[in-house]
Amino acid sequence: MIEFETTGILAGDTDRVTEVAVVHLSAEGRVQGQWSTLVNPGPLPGAHRFRRVTTSQHAPVFAQIAVDLLALLDGRVVVAHHAGFQLRFLIAELIRAGHPVPRDGGSVLCTMQLARDFHPGATRSREDCLAKFGLSRRKTPASVATNALATADLLAAYIGSNEDRSFWDRYLGDALEEPWSRVGREEAVSAPRGWVPRRERDVDSPRETHPFLRRIAHQMHSYAGEAEHLDYLAFLDRCLIEGYLAAGGALQALAQQLNISRFTCESIHHDYFVELSAIAARSGSLDEHQIGELWAVGELLDLPASLIRAALDAPRPAGVPQLLAG
């Protein structure tokens, strides 16, 4: 399992990794080891005000941990919840540090994508996927380390509920054929050198959040269509959950990267907003601020005002909040 904390959501652009956690799981689903470290992102380009990092001054930069991180990944299937997001940051940081990456991103499994097979009715959130198995997040403060362990718990549940080993064995075989590291497996590290795990007193500076949008985004249903479309939808979820929705460039770039046409993207935005509005309406009477937040989401999705008004059954209030940071 791999999990990153980042300064934002734009991999390879203005944002950097600030923390990484890795958990090794056996083929049977047992935890074999876990590692984590803070990462000093260095100077951030532009007027960066999304998530200011105040805890990583004493931590190594990504280039200093890259070799050990690659050794931890070598011969392993890279697993994450919303793996597309995590993999984009991993590849961007490795390229920035001058390291090659496996062809096609190596052997990767996404527990969010797998949920469509194991629990078709689950939402896209990791917590809901765990709940379908009667599991919950481990009772420790939320961090990349606990997130990685939660993903490990979810993957172990998938493995335990699927007697067909051929599916898992195929990914394990691919991982051995597409190594992440040039370090021989006999040299692979058991204790990464110079890693600086987060301490209890290490905290990031607070950032603006939108609890209403966060709450309803966590309730968005899964998607039965193409995997690339689900990756894009999960990115939209993350934008709302993190209190950030990048207009134009970032969404367009991701759509191009995932080979999603403009017409399809417009359709995805339309359906996403209609579902989001319906979930919001079921939560009870909306106040003007909540309506304003939904209007802002609709506008940043580049939806026509007539569609937004029809979905919300409310006019655009004065002073629609600005969700775009950067």
Automatic annotation (TrEMBL):
UniProt GO cellular component terms: cytosol
InterPro entries in the record: Ribonucl_H, RNaseH-like_sf, RNaseH_sf
Signal peptide span: none
Keywords assigned by UniProt, alphabetized: Exonuclease, Hydrolase, Nuclease
One Pfam family of this chain: RNase_T
SUPFAM superfamilies per UniProt: Ribonuclease H-like
Exonuclease domain segment(s): 2-164
UniProt cross-references to CDD domains, sorted A to Z: DEDDh
GO terms of molecular function: 3'-5' exonuclease activity; nucleic acid binding
Protein name: DNA polymerase-3 subunit epsilon
Species of the source: Glaciihabitans tibetensis
